Amino acid sequence: MGTKTTLHVTGEKIEKFTGDLLVFCAIERPDRMPFCDERVKKILQPVWKSGDFTGKKDDYLLVYPASIGMGKIHRFGCRRIAVVGLGKPEDTPNELREQLRLAGGTIATKAKSYKAQKVMVVVPDVAGLSLSERTESLSEGLLLGNYCFDKYKTKDDEDLTSPVKTFLLSGNGSSTAMRHGMTLGKNAGLAACAARDMANEPGNVWTPEKFADHAKQLAGEYPLKCRILEKKDMKKIGMGGILAVNQGSAVPPKLVILRYTTGKKNPTLMLVGKGLTFDSGGVSLKPAAGMEDMKYDMCGGAAVLGAMEVVGREQPPDINIIALVPATDNMSGAAALKPGDIIKHFGGKTTEVVNTDAEGRLILADALAWGIKTYAPDAIIDLATLTGAVIMGLGHHRTGLLSNNDTLVERICRAGEQAAEPFWRLPLGPEYSKQLKSEVADLKNVGGRPAGTITAAAYLQEFVGKTPWAHCDIAGTAWDFTEKSYIPKGPSGVGVRTLAGLVRDWAPLPKKKK
Question: In angstroms, rounded to a whole number, what is the distance separating the alpha carbons of residues 79 and 37?
Answer without folding.
Answer: 19
